[in-house]
Amino acid sequence: MAVYTHLGAEVLAGLVAEFDVGELTSVKGIAEGISNSNWLVETTGKDGAGARFILTMYEYRIEVGDLPFFLSLLDHLSARGCPVPRTIHDRQGNLYRLLDGKAVALIEFLPGVSVSAPTPGQAQAVGRALAQMQLAAADFAGVRENAMGRAEWQRLAQECGPDGLAEIDPGFAELVSRELPAVLAGWPEGLPRGTIHADLFPDNVLMLGAQVTGLIDFYFACTDLFAYDLAVTHAAWCFSNDGKHFDPALSSALIAGYEEVRPLSDAERSALPLLARGAALRFALTRAWDWVNTPADALVTRKDPVAFARRLEFYADPANATVFAAT
Ligand SMILES: Nc1ncnc2c1ncn2[C@@H]1O[C@H](COP(=O)(O)OP(=O)(O)OP(=O)(O)O)[C@@H](O)[C@H]1O
Ligand SMILES: N[C@@H](CCO)C(=O)O
């Protein structure tokens, strides 16, 4: 359940009045998501025809100083035709406001649903949308270091400690102690970089059939390798949830969709097996940290770290590097 803060009707109506979006007509808390509180807000709309928005209150993990990067990136991408929600600016032009000391933003509502069992056609559309987003951000002026990058993986692994990892799964500590130094040592230099989403999981994509109608949740977006973004998306889309089964048809479709828009260089393609190991490590470690540091009965549902340890094992097997080979 992701509504951590109760906002009374009067407070919400007062907040909505700060934006030129008509009057508040209804509000519903949104259960999905773990980092922020989200509400579906309906108003009369500027023209009286009704309008829908997502109201987000930033609760965890997001630095207010990063909000101008995230929220102006939404505006930039939306203005370039990407299916990305634009930020509704308040009457003074602000991208976000403070409410009881917490930052809140109003964002355009986009139609569509998140798929849980993607088809190859959907994976292909996601590959295309990812590459389109990366290219559309080429003239975005914002720069943000990847706060969930390699230095953070080391810190997370240290904080969980071998015992914490072994408690999650007996082989986990050994896997991390083998893979983390190998991935760090082999990390490629000089590949093309720019603004990336860095967290394009199925729950961050809205779809209607095989059409991508929304790319959302840009709160890990940063400046990093384009091919790493594809590797993250590959790890997120091409396996069963528990990481036990790899789906080659989803993999080929995702990469083909991406390359329809932005062909990979030879250097990027050769780096993908290692970047995918990095992507799997990133999510195995952030999930492990959450697992160790979140009480089992907390409001937030912990995500399974082992599902990404399994993906890491898959990518670490040299025989599987062929999934990234040119066809
Ligand atoms: N612009 C939007 N249009 C329509 N629905 C949206 C939009 N933004 C968010 N949602 C809905 O709100 C839910 C939660 O949003 P979001 O994923 O941004 O939350 P979160 O707490 O940051 O999530 P998490 O940290 O788990 O990835 C989404 O699953 C989606 O159903
Ligand atoms: N998409 C991530 C959560 C945000 O980092 C996961 O599934 O672990």
From TrEMBL:
Q: Which GO terms describe its biological process?
A: threonine biosynthetic process
Superkingdom to which the source organism belongs: Bacteria
Instruction: List, alphabetically, the CDD domains matched.
Output: HomoserineK_II (cd05153)
What is catalysed by this protein?
L-homoserine + ATP = O-phospho-L-homoserine + ADP + H(+)
* Domain Aminoglycoside phosphotransferase, chain residue ranges per copy: 27-264
Q: What is this protein called?
A: Homoserine kinase
Identify the keywords attached in UniProt to this record, alphabetized: Amino-acid biosynthesis, ATP-binding, Kinase, Nucleotide-binding, Threonine biosynthesis, Transferase
Is Ribosomal protein among the key words of this record?
A: no
